[in-house]
Amino acid sequence: MVWYDFFRMSNLEIINLFRNVAAAYSIKNEYKFKFQIIAYLKAAEAIEHSSTELKTLFEQGKLQNIPGIGPTIKDRLEELFRTGKVKHFEEVLSDISPAVFPLLDIPSFGPKKASKLVSHFKLHDPKTAIEDIKTLALEDKISILEGFGEKSQSDILRAISEYGKGTTKSSRMVLSYAFTLAQEVIIYLKKHKDVIEAETLGSLRRMNSTIGDVDIAVASKNTKAVLEYFVAFPGKERIIEKGPTTASILIGGGKHVDLLALPPQQFGSMLQHFTGSKNHNVALREYSLKRHMSLSERGIKLLSEKGSPLVEFTSEEKFYKYLGLDWIPPEIRENEGEIEAALKHNLPDLVKIGDIRGDLHIHTNYPIDSSHDYGISSMQEMINRAKELKYEYIGLSDHNPSIGNHTKNELYSILSKRKSIIDSIKKSNKSIRVINLLEMDILASGELAIDNKTLELVDALIVSIHSSFSTNKEDMTRRVLAGLSNPKAKILAHPTGRLLNLRAGYELDWNRIFDFCVKNNKALEINAWPERLDLSDGLVKQAKEAGVKFVINTDSHAISHMDNMFYGVSVARRGWTEKKDILNTLPANKFVEWITS
DNA sequence: GCCGTTTTCGGCCCGACTGTTTTCAGTCG
Fold this sequence. Notes:
Blueprint: H1 11-29, H2 34-48, H3 54-60, H4 71-83, H5 87-94, H6 100-103, H7 111-120, H8 129-138, H9 150-164, E1 173-174, H10 175-190, E2 197-200, H11 202-205, E3 210-211, E4 214-219, H12 223-230, E5 236-242, E6 246-251, E7 255-262, H13 267-275, H14 278-290, E8 293-296, E9 299-302, H15 316-322, H16 338-343, E10 358-362, H17 379-388, E11 393-399, H18 408-428, E12 433-441, H19 452-455, E13 460-464, H20 473-484, E14 489-492, H21 510-520, E15 523-527, H22 537-546, E16 549-553, H23 565-574, H24 588-595
Parallel strand pairs: 4-7, 10-11, 11-12, 12-13, 13-14, 14-15, 15-16
Antiparallel strand pairs: 1-3, 2-4, 5-6, 6-7, 8-9
Helix pairs in contact: 1-2, 8-9, 13-15, 22-23
The structure holds one DNA strand.
């Protein structure tokens, strides 16, 4: 039996549990339990995309709101939250050695391979399972097993070694890291004379917040030469696989880069297929099958006419058009209503990077004696960069001065001096509107760090949480709403406090937050800092549906960070927002009117 | 075990690559 702390189970732990249940079914009888396996994997993926803790949905009686959770899984989850265990799962997992499960996070290990090894060598301890397998391989005891050989034994050793250095199935890169890496590979590929087009694929093309592998597509009439050229990429550590149409390499940092090469006449269908998401493609295939068409990366087969040739597509636009659909932007291909919208020709006109007219969350090196961090560039350097970006306005928003080290009078004096400096900067920078902001701590009590009289020295406030992260949901919601209630507070910065791969962030009662923002003309920030991307795309979509407005900010601490706006816009796009939803697409007069209202 | 624009029953996307094999099983996306 695998041990779980059922009572406090987070979404991550439930995802892990469901994947283990699916693996257990595969080991028992893959054919008999085929559809249970699919169902549990699908449910795990749906939970991965949920922006709400299942525990919360359980308390609200809304578990079945998640597509992929039907009556049976709902019952099992309710049993889990009520009693702390699930009898059915205990039975399913009971005759599988717990040593199987840790192996499943190693690339190239699936349920069958893990189970074969664990049961043949009678391994029981999950804590030592990986080390045990390594020892057996080193002792040359694996290559003699049926279905294994010398090559698979050495592959196992290599996989475990790479796993130890961070190449796991679950570790993911932040978007900006993967995007930069992909651009390097694309620049390299485009130097080859046979490369006609090169484009990112998968979660990277859809601009997910985190990316597993970097996938790239190439259109070429000489795919063999391009694949040979690709696997010689200078940053390569080794070739993982290489076939006639695909190849995969490992690069420094333990990440995979996969290349797909097909002739130009199939580039459209290939791009579509490998952009995904899986859920989008499954839904699109089901939609197509009802219309007697079968989709693959090579094109579309008409099932109604026997022996009819494959219809090929040079572009995605033509591919979708053939299915009777408008072209769907990659960012919203998640099977969350986009196929229906494309059919009815009412897809959203998503906000674009070129729509952005200002950046409001900028930290400078101005000596404000902050309790948090400073920027490294000066106010004037930031303003110059904003001008280069053709912005019409910029908000200087250093952290508030530390309240522990200063009296009220000193705080007034510090901000008074800052105001006079910003006023003179405004006068010498007439081509751009400079807005005097502060990023203000909402204290644990819900009060702002600075009193109202002193706040008259700034145009408006960005408010945010920087302390007591473990406060419970109810108190945190009250705290945030109290902070936002100050008339100067216009934007709630990085609203969940999450740090990708590091910190889940605190929980808020989002319906109350959304409602408050709509009624009181407050905006939620979409923070473009690559490790934040906060709000998350899912919450952006929910907030938009509630009528909330947004400001996309970079939270820059240096001029180079101001280019991260692009990643914030991609989050906004994944949340289905249009130009009218994003306040910093407004012209300067309108924007200043709002933020000082 | 989930789900519904022919369905509350009877379906459930499609293919590439590798290693151990001589026709396939396993993993991956």
